[in-house]
Amino acid sequence: MKMFSVSHKTAFVVDHCPYMAESCRQQVECDVLTKSRGQGMIPLAPVSKSLWTCAVECSMEYCRILYDVYPLRKLLMSALAAVGPPNPQEDPECCSVLHGLVAAVESLCKITEYQHEARTTLMDTADRVANRGRIICLTNAKSDTHVRMLEDCVQETILEQNKMAAGSDRLMPIQQCELVLVHIFPQGEDTLVSDRPKKEVSSLLTSEVHSVRAGRHLATKLNILVQQHFDLASTTITNIPMKEEQHANTSANYDVELLHHRDAHLEFFKSGDLHMAGSTSRDSGLKETVTLKWCTPRTNSVELHYCTGAYRISPTDVNSRPSSCLTNFLLNGRSVLLEQPRKSGSKVISHMLSSHGGEIFLHVLNSTRSTLEDPPSISEGCGGRVTDYRITDFGEFMRENRLTPVPESPDTEASGKPPAERAKAQLERYTRYWPMIISQTTIFNMQAVVPLANLIVKESLSEEDLLTCQKTVYNLVDMERKNDPLPISTVGSRGKGPKRDEQYRIMWNELETLVKTHVAGSERHQRVLDCIIACRSKPPEEEERKKRGRKREDKEDKAEKNINKDSEDKSWQESERLKGVVERVKEEQGESEVIKDSPDSPEPLNKKPRLEEIQLPEKAKGPVSLLTMWTNRITVANSRKHQEFAGRISSVNNKAELYQHLKDENGMDLHENGKATR
After folding, report:
1. Nearby residues of 547 by Cβ (< 8 Å), 6 or more positions away
2. This protein's superkingdom (predicted)?
């Protein structure tokens, strides 16, 4: 069936009875020349609109907003232009709004151009194309009984017109009609008609009643109704800088409210930032608007921004100066960026105002990952890069919840629920508590908890399942008694992480949370929870043992810190001692170099040890220290400043044998007189 909603046809019925000529009693000041008026001039008296004028103006404003946002494929009656104001002298008995309601129902039965196009495309009967519509009646009812009489009139007329349309090719039966009765009464008077939400009068007719004061209250009510009827939403642009008319050199900030399709706020609803975006209420909570902040325009190019949607806008107060200035600014080819007002953090540009072809659009900018980019890795999350997703566990989760076709059989029917409902129920149980990240869970990282985690999600537990779960709990108690370590993630934390007893407290809390989500399944689920609670309540001697364990851990930590501090002090003292030795050697070698300036100068008798002869303490194998590097450099530099003694070069253990050339071949020593001695 071709779907045409009730918004496809909207018929306005404005009561033209003599009472509608009464004043709405909301005064409008016409004397604007208060300061420049002369002494002899009489001030102008304020005026007030009639109920008819208020109703017509609000109806036209309803139509204006609708045509701004939906310029095509929307139909409204235009008969109000040919009707004059009501005559207050006319007999009220001769005037009745019932004639207008009958005419509205007749208009809804007529085939529109779009319905005819749909029928022609389908090449089928009129039954395949839906015919729905809405009637908005602005009147002054006498009482609630009068309202019920109007509803009965519309119901009877629909039945009569449907009979006529069944035998006609130019008419279509009405399948659904919404009747919106707006009771208008002057300000200062009490209403005789009570408000009533939408109710179903019959399968063809629904009705709702609104009792509203004439004037600005009626305009606000019609503004809210047009948003409800055509899925519109309100956005208020704040902090718009505008120059003052009286003072051209000064500027002030103004606000402008715009109406557009509700999908422009869809990202706010998805991300949950609607409240953060500045959702406020006005007119005693009757109207809601999302506040966006004006950003100074810096570019005229629209193509620089990635948009996910564009929606036509309509100013709420089209005749106000701020609205006029904003529309003229945008129609001149400028673009305005809009940001979400936030108390902290960086600003988020979420929307942009720009015009195309003489029409102004509200563009929704992509503030998250663009669909044009490469698909995100599974290790990336909404809050940034997350590298510890439970990917393996999720694969197992998918295998356990696979859907398979089930043939119809007596066993399937006897089980009560159809297979699809049982599958949904199982998926709901499995996802009641399922952390997605490894660092956010402890029990799902422990092999000892796997039996309990796999059984607790079952719809019912057998006696064997109960014993397995209790055995798992007792194993955890035994692990805690032995002080075994737990797989607690320390990502983002400094130091060694939480203490051992704190780790077990986290584990028990998470295990209790898991079981509590399934405790309503059966009586055995409750017994598993009771077992956990009983094991968590430790006896006094167990608490005393825990305290001694914590004290022992604190002592071990302090001892380890003291050892590290002592080793650091000893290393520093050794470094300082070696530094002093090197400095003294450098000074003494400098003095010897001054004496050795002459090549004939002999070696000093009291020879100081050279730098190479200093036995430095052995270091552990590993990288060369800075002190060793500096010592080697000084040694090489000093060795290049003089020629080493030949005897010392060929000496053995720093002892050189003199007059070696005087020895003969027979091992005899020769003297100056030529005599030889042994």
Report:
1. none
2. Eukaryota
What is the model's pLDDT at position 677?
46
For residues 607 and 588, is the Cβ–Cβ distance under 8 A?
Answer: no
Distance in angstroms (rounded) separating the CA atoms of residues 361 and 310: 6
Nearest to 111 by CA among 133, 131, 136: 131
d(CA 362, CA 310): 5
The alpha carbon of 463 is separated from its chain's Cα centroid by a whole number of angstroms, namely: 45
Q: What is the pLDDT of residues 500-531, one digit of tens each?
A: 778 888 888 889 999 999 888 788 999 999 99
| Ramachandran quadrant class, 133 (left: phi over 0; alpha: psi -120 to 50; beta: rest) | beta
Distance CA 267, CA 200 (A): 34
Token pair for 172? 């279509």
Helix spans in 315-462 (H): 321-331, 391-400, 410-414, 419-430, 450-456
* Per-residue pLDDT tens over the stretch 263-303: 998 887 776 666 544 444 444 344 688 889 998 765 555 45
Which residue(s) pair with 237 in the sheet?
256, 292
Length of the chain (residues): 678
By the 8 A CB rule, do 509 and 433 touch? no
pTM of the model: 0.55
pLDDT in tens, 120-177: 876 544 457 889 999 999 999 989 999 999 999 999 999 999 999 988 888 999 999 9
Between β-strands 359-365 and 380-381, what pairing exists: parallel, antiparallel or unpaired? unpaired
CA distance 154 to 133: 13
How many other CB atoms are there within 10 angstroms of residue 578's CB atom? 18
- Nearest Cα to Cα of residue 347 among 397, 421, 273: 273
Can you give the pLDDT at residue 126?
44
Q: Assign 200 to helix, strand or coil.
A: strand
Q: How far is CA 280 from CA 170, 219, 227, 262, in A?
A: 48, 19, 16, 16
CA distance linking residue 346 with residue 352, whole number of Å: 18
Per-residue model confidence (pLDDT) at position 544: 59
Q: Do the Cβ atoms of 342 and 332 come closer than 8 Å?
A: no
CB atoms within 10 A of CB 639: 13
Q: Specify whether the CB–CB gap between 313 and 65 falls below 8 A.
A: no
Instruction: Indicate the pLDDT class of residue 606, thresholds 50, 70 and 90.
Output: very low
CB–CB of 74/67 below 8 Å? yes
How far is 396 from 80, CA to CA, in rounded Å? 68
DSSP state letter for 661: G
